[in-house]
Design goal:
The protein is α+β, with helices and mostly antiparallel strands. The chain has helices at about 5-10, 20-35, 40-45, 50-60, 70-80, 185-195, 200, 240-245, 260-265; strands at about 35-40, 85-95, 105-115, 115-120, 135, 150-155, 155-165, 165-175, 205-210, 210-215, 220-225, 230-235. The protein is built from 9 helices and 12 strands.
Length: about 270
């Protein structure tokens, strides 16, 4: 990582980091609270670079967020710079589908070794982004600062699930085969350019707050409050969406002049 101190300042981590579980938990939570998930580049047809310097520039200095390939790249490099052993993993997204559905590996996840145990970390899953760390060896429900999550075995793979409204929902499956940075390039390219990709078809933005989560899908804005249900509203026009991107998600869209027209096309 080129600028670890700048990263730690950006996410509000205000002490000297150590290679311990407390630091890992705090860095993950601070990252999730500070950098939104968004697909604005894919929506507007822009290339998404996975060069580490480009990702740092976008997520730390240009007022933008990103998706899993960028978010977990940035976090993983920061953790390595602190001194954590980190392994990149590839996962099959099954959100909204059956847990055993055949799906491509289009999600980046991290395995971090600390205190003689392996922990799963993921700050790039949109509206269900993990705000804590999960003990890979534990098959019981694990609390996080937000929802409970759990890992269980499904054949030769591990399945991540989150508890939503009292129900366990499958998120993604993964194995422990280490991935190299080049291994994510094809999936990243496909999700950016494939007309069938839901990231090119609609707006997908989310952020975490201490109280819950904000999620924007198209013109529908939801606020999920921990322990208090959800509030939803339909934004009436493009200006309202741009205002939400700025005021709710703290995303700077000034570098995306084509975005208003693209949003307008979603209503046509």
């Amino acid at each position: 990582m080129q600028d670890l101190s700048g990263y730690l300042r950006h996410i509000g981590f205000g002490r000297a980091p150590a290679v311990d579980l407390a630091t890992l938990r705090e860095v993950v939570l601070c990252h999730a609270l500070s950098i939104p998930f968004e697909n604005l580049d894919a929506l507007t047809g822009r290339r998404i670079s996975l060069d580490p310097a480009d990702v740092e520039r976008k997520l730390l200095h240009q007022g933008r967020g990103g998706w899993c390939f960028e978010q977990n790249l940035l976090l993983g490099n920061a953790l390595r710079a602190i001194g954590f052993p980190v392994v990149d993993l590839a996962a099959r997204v099954v959100w909204g589908r059956e847990a055993d559905v055949v799906a491509p590996r289009t999600h980046r996840v991290l395995k971090v070794r600390v205190d003689h145990r392996d922990w799963i970390v993921d700050v790039g899953f949109g509206g269900q982004t993990l705000t804590g760390v999960l003990d890979l060896a534990c098959l019981e429900s694990q609390d996080t600062p937000h929802e409970p999550f759990r890992l269980r075995r499904l054949g030769d793979e591990h399945l991540m699930e989150s508890q939503v409204a009292g129900q366990w929902l499958p998120m993604f499956r993964f194995d422990l085969h280490p991935q190299q940075p080049i291994d994510f390039e094809a999936a990243n390219f496909q999700l950016v350019h494939d007309p069938a990709s839901h990231f090119t078809q609609g707006l997908r933005v989310s952020c975490v707050t201490p109280e819950g989560r904000h999620v924007l899908r198209g013109f529908e804005l939801a606020h999920h409050v921990l322990g208090a249900g959800s509030r939803r509203e339909t934004l009436q026009d493009v200006e309202s969406v741009l205002g939400a991107l700025r005021d709710v998600f703290a995303i700077d869209t000034t570098g995306l002049p084509e975005l208003p027209a693209k949003l307008a096309s979603l209503r046509s």
